[in-house]
């Protein structure tokens, strides 16, 4: 395939993927996406520069500003969803180029790119406002640069730095990048330049965010900001979300087929789901075995194993059952799948195309289409109902996803019960203080607490 054909086909893959995702609007509305939309609309930069994913909120705010500049008058969440859909499509285009650089023909590369695009984890998070898809896009750009005959360490470091700023977990790609560069035409000197540039770029961005936006004021507050999701307990207490050893390994292994299609939900036929997941994992294992037997000195061989191995070091100990973290595994796994399919000879193309089609049909009917139904999102419907049944200036005592759904969809002020766990008296005092000022306070069931002194009789709370 000529250089011009490569580019044209890659653009076509990216455009088709983006339009495909934009045509599947999701009403799933994950917690972090809604929280980011709140911060974007408020212009709350301290929350936009999250310690675990510094870049996403900044990109989201700039993207939302660009939309409003063109005349958009809607809310931030659809804009953030669209941004992730564009990144999802762009990631497929880069992945297609990666496969071509690895020596796969155009048909096999298209089939593998399509398979990645309809894999459950990739498809879901190409529809949802969340940090993971943009970060994987930048990681693929870094990997594509590293595959060059003469890779440019500074460019690779820049893409990898953006991936790390997109999500801090991508720092774990560093050993794979160093492996590839040290065995490439630029050698160990180029690898050292890559590591230094990556560290400098990431460090400079964090220093700038801390100095000009976060203003932590103390080492403890700085540590809480950097820890991010590990310091969400009341008072900023550190909590590593781990599981016991055997359970962690079992959960991590079980998550592998589920990132292709998740059959654990009882609303889906589990047999077909497990079959598709088993085929994908079996091909990946076979491809990894065939690659390990290949004696050719290609730097990317070891990098693929380092890629999966280094990420496993983190996600075996941090929420090993959480599927969204494993999006970073999918590109490497699909490369192994393509290798395994190619090793089978003539059945390679129909096998890979059939796997992609099967995943697309299964995930489309049993995962994506239900997400497109707003009535299926019960907390979302409850938030809309509370907006109708409570005064505009009401406070609502809630927890869980209600802590972001109610401020965003119902436009109500909230008291998060999570911060009062084990301190019922403190919660009672907070509510009593609000009632004493004449504020309307409700439980998230819609039941009023006390009799608020409303200015308008229509605003008086009523129990359900």
How would the blueprint of this fold be written?
Blueprint: H1 3-22, H2 31-42, H3 45-48, H4 54-69, H5 76-101, H6 106-118, H7 120-125, H8 132-146, H9 153-166, H10 174-182, H11 187-214, H12 219-227, H13 245-258, H14 270-293, H15 299-315, H16 330-343, H17 348-371, H18 378-389, E1 395-398, H19 402-410, E2 413-416, H20 424-436, E3 441-443
Helix pairs in contact: 1-5, 2-4, 2-5, 2-19, 4-5, 5-6, 5-8, 6-16, 6-17, 8-9, 9-11, 10-11, 10-15, 14-16, 14-17, 16-17, 18-19
Characterise this structure.
A three-stranded parallel sheet has the order 2-1-3, sandwiched between helices. The longest helix is centred in the middle third of the chain and has 28 residues, at 187-214. The termini are far apart. α19 links the parallel β1 (395-398) and β2 (413-416). The protein is 64% helix and 2% strand. With 464 residues, it is an all-alpha fold. It has two domains: 3-371, no CATH class; 377-459, no CATH class. It is globular and about 75 Å long.
């Amino acid at each position: 395939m000529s250089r011009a054909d490569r580019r044209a086909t890659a653009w076509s893959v990216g455009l088709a993927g983006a339009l495909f995702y934009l045509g599947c609007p999701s009403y799933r509305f994950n917690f972090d996406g809604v929280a980011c939309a709140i911060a974007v609309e408020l212009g709350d930069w301290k929350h936009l520069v999250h310690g675990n994913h510094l870049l996403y909120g900044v990109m989201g705010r700039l993207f939302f500003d660009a939309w409003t500049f063109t005349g958009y008058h809607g809310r931030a969440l659809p804009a953030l969803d669209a941004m992730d859909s564009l990144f999802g499509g762009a990631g497929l285009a880069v992945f297609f180029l990666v496969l071509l650089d690895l020596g796969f023909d155009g048909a096999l590369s298209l089939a593998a790119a399509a398979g990645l695009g309809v894999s459950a984890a990739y498809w879901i998070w190409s529809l949802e406002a969340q940090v993971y898809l943009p970060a994987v896009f930048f990681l693929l750009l870094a990997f594509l640069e590293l595959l060059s005959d003469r890779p440019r360490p500074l460019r690779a470091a820049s893409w990898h730095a953006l991936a790390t700023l997109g999500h801090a977990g991508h720092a774990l790609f560093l050993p794979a990048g160093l492996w590839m560069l040290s065995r490439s035409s630029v050698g160990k000197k180029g690898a050292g330049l890559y590591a230094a540039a990556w560290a400098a770029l990431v460090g400079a961005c964090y220093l700038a965010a801390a100095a000009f936006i976060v203003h932590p004021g103390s080492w403890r507050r700085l540590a809480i900001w950097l820890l991010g999701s590990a310091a969400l307990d009341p008072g900023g207490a550190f909590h590593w979300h781990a599981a016991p050893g055997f359970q962690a390994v079992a959960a991590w292994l079980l998550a592998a087929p589920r990132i292709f299609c998740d059959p654990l939900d009882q609303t889906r036929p589990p047999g077909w789901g497990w079959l598709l997941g088993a085929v994908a994992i079996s091909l990946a294992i076979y491809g990894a075995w065939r690659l390990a037997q290949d004696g050719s000195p290609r730097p990317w061989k070891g990098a693929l194993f380092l890629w999966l191995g280094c990420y496993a070091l983190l996600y075996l100990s941090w929420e090993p059952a959480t599927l969204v973290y494993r999006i970073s595994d999918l590109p490497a796994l699909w490369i192994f799948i393509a290798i395994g399919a190619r090793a089978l000879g003539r059945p390679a193309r129909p096998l890979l195309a059939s796997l992609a089609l099967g995943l697309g049909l299964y995930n489309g009917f049993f995962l994506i289409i239900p997400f497109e139904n707003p009535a299926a999102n019960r907390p979302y419907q409850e938030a809309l109902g509370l907006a109708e049944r409570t005064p505009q200036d009401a406070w609502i005592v809630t927890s869980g996803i209600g802590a972001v759904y109610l401020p965003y969809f119902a436009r109500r002020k909230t008291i998060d019960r999570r911060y009062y766990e084990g301190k019922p008296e403190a919660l009672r005092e907070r509510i009593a203080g609000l009632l004493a000022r004449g504020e309307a306070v409700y439980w998230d069931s819609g039941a009023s607490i006390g009799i608020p002194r409303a200015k308008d009789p229509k605003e008086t709370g009523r129990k359900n």
